Amino acid sequence: MSITLSRVNTSAATLTKNRTEGSVTPNSGMCVTCVDGCIGMCEIGKSAYRGHEVIYPQPFGVITTASEKSYPVDYSHFNIMGTAVGAHGIEADSDKAIFPNVNLEVHFGHDKGIKFRYPWIIPGIGSTNIAKNNWEGLAIGSALAGTGLTIGENVVGMDMEAKFKDGKAIDTVDLKRRVKLYKDNMRDGYGAIIVQANVEDTRLGTQEYAISELGVQIVEMKWGQGAKNIGGEVKIKDLKKAQELFERGYVVIPNPTDPDVIRAFERGVFKEFERHSRLGMVSEDGFAQRVDELRKAGAKYIFLKTGAYAPADLARAIKFSSKYNIDLLTVDGAGGGTGMSPWRMMNEWGVPPVELHSLLYNYAKILHDKGKHVPTLAVAGGFTFEDQIFKGLAIGAPYVKLVGMARSPIAAAMVGKTIGTAIDNGQLPVYVERFGSSRDEIFVTSGTLRKEIGDHEFETLPTGAIGLYTYYERLAQGLRQLMCGSRKFNIDSITRTDIAALTHEAAEVSGIQYIMDVDKKEVADILNG
């Protein structure tokens, strides 16, 4: 049987479609009859006049994007197991073992000094417009919820108001704003703001600046992400900004200092420059040196994020993290969402989430069985709802304590922001207006938030933050219900036996038991006893 896992030549992501939508050649994605005279609605046709611009999802700056490839195994190929017997993490008492009593807190770091109310983190939102334009909601919402938020790559380098001395950052506007928005809204020490760095950030001294000037305690080294296997990318519509970024050491194409390129841009031949980051070159010596530099600079905790690279790279990531006492390793599976990645790369590159996370568990267990330190692990790659969060925690238990999510929190913040604008303009759509016309009526968490932070603070909250907080509240209640049904009342109680594989292929890939094999011995004991 032939199964097509991904589409070619047409996608909403590239704003392209087939002329003969109902009759398409599966392998090429071309119309079965490609007609002379077609204006070129498909990706091939659009590439004939816009060239490399069509590599990227569009329209840039107002979207997040993720792969539409259907992988052979994904998290829907597992089901969560429940039981009618006992309880873990709480007394087996029907009056106590109720879902509101499930404890979702996670404490980690070398001294267990980082504490999150919920077992998830936003693992890196950087210099794209979609991140910058929604940062208020993301930062304040995350801080109020008491969970982690990572400031991604290139934020300092893209800040046109940042100041540098001898090539190192000495003052910023954007990074300072991002850190402050989060820290000003933290409650009771829960949550964390993390500053990530790629090659350019490291050269610019971004993390040293964040530690010494902004009081940031947690920094993250970045090897990559699940969406692409090259450096971070954005589009630039302003010639002077493109030239400034070129001078700061970024790869900018076409060359914004070339007179011919400048003339072409001014004539409207093209309207956007591309800014690219460099590839990191990983070595153990370089890794050890950077960890040492960050600790000497005052970093209290050090994280590492890696992407969907080949298995040997994953082995390096967890081995180095073990050897040099990294506090959190985040592993991001292929197809993950981003602000801008090459569309075909996002669909066709890397190790998918279930496979990558299964390898991660295997490698962690090898180290653990040897008596080596295993850092706290986080898994990422397309997680959006509580059932997926449970499965992600279970497939990597007992080493995985967090799930990374980016696209869905951004979506929640954007929707909250959009509703706020609609309230202010008196233009609520019927779909929302049926719940009311004020933030108190529309956002179901408003009563709780108003009581906890006070009337004035609530009224000044950006609705993007309320949207994210409310989405997180839904995830938390849903996860508590699932965990209660599995009789697991804290994160440490979750095990790999809490999920079962629905197919033999999923079982073979993950090492999770096939559903018909679950409890075989116990069943025999019960029936034969």
Outline type: globular
Strand order of the largest sheet: 4-5-8-9-13-14-15-16
Strand tally = 17
* Average residue pLDDT: 95
Query: Into which percent range does the helicity of residues fall?
Result: 25-40%
Major beta-sheet overview = 8 strands, parallel, barrel
In DSSP terms (H or I, runs of 4 or more residues), the helix count works out at: 21
Strand residues, percent: 5-15%
Radius of gyration: 24 Å
Describe this structure in words.
With 529 residues, the protein is α/β, with parallel strands linked by helices. Among the domains are: 12-55, no CATH class; 233-276, no CATH class. Helix content is 39%, strand content 14%. The chain is built from 21 helices and 17 strands. The strands form five sheets. It has an eight-stranded parallel β-barrel, surrounded by seven helices. A hairpin with a 5-residue loop joins β2 (106-108) and β3. α14 (407-425) crosses α19. The longest helix has 23 residues, at 463-485. It starts with 42 loop residues before the first helix and ends with a helix. The model has no long low-confidence stretch (mean pLDDT 95).
